[in-house]
Amino acid sequence: MNNQTNLKPSNVYLITAVASLGGLLFGYDTAVISGAVGGLRSYFVSPLSENINIATEAIVEFKGLITICTLVIFALFSSFIFKFFKKVTAIGIMVVSILLIGSLLYSNFLSDSNELSENLGNSILGFMVSSALVGCIIGAAVGDRIANSIGRRNGLIVAALLFIISALGSAYPEKLPFLMAGNLTTFIIYRIIGGIGVGLASMLAPLYIAEMAPANMRGKLVSCNQLAIVSGMLVVYFVNYFIIKGQADDWINNIGWRYMFLSECIPAILFFFFLLIVPKTPRFQVLKGNEDAAIAVLTKYNGSSRASEILEDIKKSFKTKKAPWLSYGWAIIIIGLLLSVFQQFVGINVVLYYAPEIFKGMGMETDASMMQTIIVGAINLLFTVVAMFTVDKFGRKILMIIGSIFMAISMLGLGTVLYADSSGIVALLLMLLYIAAFAISWGPVTWVLLSEIFPNKIKGVMAVAVAVQWLANLVVSWTFPMMNNNSHLNELFNHGFAYWIYGIMAVLSAFFIWKFVPETKGKTLEEMESIWEAEGTLESKIN
User: Fold this and answer.
1) Quick one: 269 and 308 in the same domain?
2) Looking at per-residue confidence, does 8 or 133 come out higher?
3) How far apart are CA 196 and CA 219, in angstroms?
4) pLDDT at 305
5) What pLDDT score does 9 carry?
6) Cα–Cα distance for residue pair 511/504, rounded to 1 Å
7) Dihedral through CA 519, CA 520, CA 523, CA 524, nearest 10?
8) Which of 163, 239, 347, 398 counts the highest number of beta carbons within 10 A?
9) Are 438 and 297 members of one domain?
């Protein structure tokens, strides 16, 4: 009992609730786009086909923006290359990559005429929807530096401000132009700004909770952040539904989509002001030499008897030596990266971003399609909670394999139903089955595996895995309209093609988990290290 002197659980729950608003905004910002896709197409893309001069100007700006985004993403990933290879080798890889990426970008995009084609229009819409993910990559990449320079709490304050700026600019790009850019480019830039906020929140919110929570409550409290993310998605689905309920399509396409983005200001402003009343983490205080402030916070949240002991543990942790990222070989690196890639390539964010459009494509009215999206969000939330209570009971591998199997069945089935032009209740049930399968497996369990497979000495590799995850998300979300709205593919497959691709990826993900990913349930970090040091790594399995 002495260890808990002065400890008030309400204090811990309060800071967890405040930090979890970062997770809620993460989910809110990434899902708000789902209700606005039709409005964005009508307001930004469709008018380009009516005015050649406006279209040419917008396409030139779009090409320039894509070039800049490519260079930024390449620069961020280049910093990782130097962590894996010697300097000369890393420079060689970068030069080859620049030449390859540059030639592909020029020959397949920049050299094309500045005339609006069906594929280019779909590409513009896809990037508008997925552009926030460029910001997510940036935010995740700089999150560690921000956490160690201005702190976890102050980093979240920056994220809150970025959410507010993004919400206002995305809602009214013509009133808040970015420099001299046109409306389309301005909208994309504001979405990228919001994405930086998401990237920061995705890293700093769970980090803040983990560093503030007592050890005996840490697991439960950190899991609240994942719950907050899916809750944010569900909340915004409700918000979008009530914004457009009973409204005419013209109002939705001209005004309604603006209110969807603007609504994010409410939780973002609350997040900003609540952050001003919570303390900086003890670990950051020690990092900056403020031990008195650290001990005060530790006493408040852990009790006076435990405070000094935890302070000493924090000081010792700074002395832990980091090992080279390839200390355990390539197997662990490849497995970590493929976990991130498969989590996105099974198509989950296509459903989360485009759900209303998918349901409207099945013949549903606007109100009905938004209501079905709410059901999708509710299923996502429910089965995420189920996963939280079953992952330690059944293990990681079995949940991941079962999830992959049912996702494969759902996506292959949905593609077949659409191909046969017999959508309806069957398509809806397959979509809900898919969401349930993902939410109980690849959604939360991927993060559990990523946090467990990397030994403490090379925890920095997780930053690469997270960045790759955002990049894979960008690729999938950007390319979906190009596949789903392509006239030639629709003549052949009637909107079923994209879903078959995601179904095949789900099959491959099941094989990957079964063959290459070790079970981490009940294993200590030391035991995980021995797995990677022993024989039976990815290379030996392949050979």
Assistant:
1) no
2) 133
3) 26
4) 75
5) 62
6) 11
7) 150
8) 163
9) no
- Asked, for residue 216, whether it belongs to a domain, the answer is yes
* Strand locations in 205-305 (E): none
Q: Which residue has the higher pLDDT, 524 or 128?
A: 128
The answer to whether residues 266 and 163 belong to one domain is yes
State residue 361 phi and psi, 5-degree precision. -65, -20
Residue 148 predicted with pLDDT over 90: no
User: In terms of domains, do 407 and 304 share one?
Assistant: no
* Burial class of 492 by CB neighbour count within 10 A (0 to 12, 13 to 18, 19+): exposed
Domain extent, residue 265, equals 26-278
Phi, psi of 327 (to 5 degrees): -60, -30
What interhelical angle do 461-484 and 52-84 show, nearest 10? Answer: 150
Separation of alpha carbons 493 and 483, rounded Å: 10
pLDDT in tens, 415-468: 998 888 776 788 888 889 999 999 999 988 888 788 778 776 777 787 788 888
Q: Which residue in 431, 421, 425, 427 sits closest to 490, CA to CA? A: 421
- Indicate the pTM of the whole model: 0.85
Distances (CA, A) of 362 to 419, 431, 497: 12, 12, 15
How large is the C-alpha radius of gyration of the chain? 24
Query: Which residue, chain included where needed, has tokens 């919570």?
Result: 278
Q: Is the pLDDT of residue 153 over 50?
A: yes
CB under 8 Å to 428, separation ≥6 — which residues? 359, 362, 372
Phi then psi for residue 26, to 5 deg, are -55, -55
CATH number at residue 166: 1.20.1250.20
Containing 466, the helix (H) or strand (E) segment is helix 461-484
Same structural domain for residues 287 and 333? Answer: no
Q: Which range among 328-337, 356-365, 404-413 shows the weakest confidence by mean pLDDT?
A: 356-365
Give yes or no: residues 444 and 496 share one domain.
yes
455 or 370: which leads in pLDDT = 370
Are 82 and 229 part of one and the same domain?
yes
The helix or strand, by DSSP H or E, that contains position 139, with its residue range, turns out to be: helix 132-149
Number of folded domains that form the chain: 3
Token pair in block for residue 358:
């998918």
- Range ranked top by mean pLDDT from 170-179, 284-293, 499-508, 525-534: 499-508
* pLDDT over threshold 90, residue 338: yes
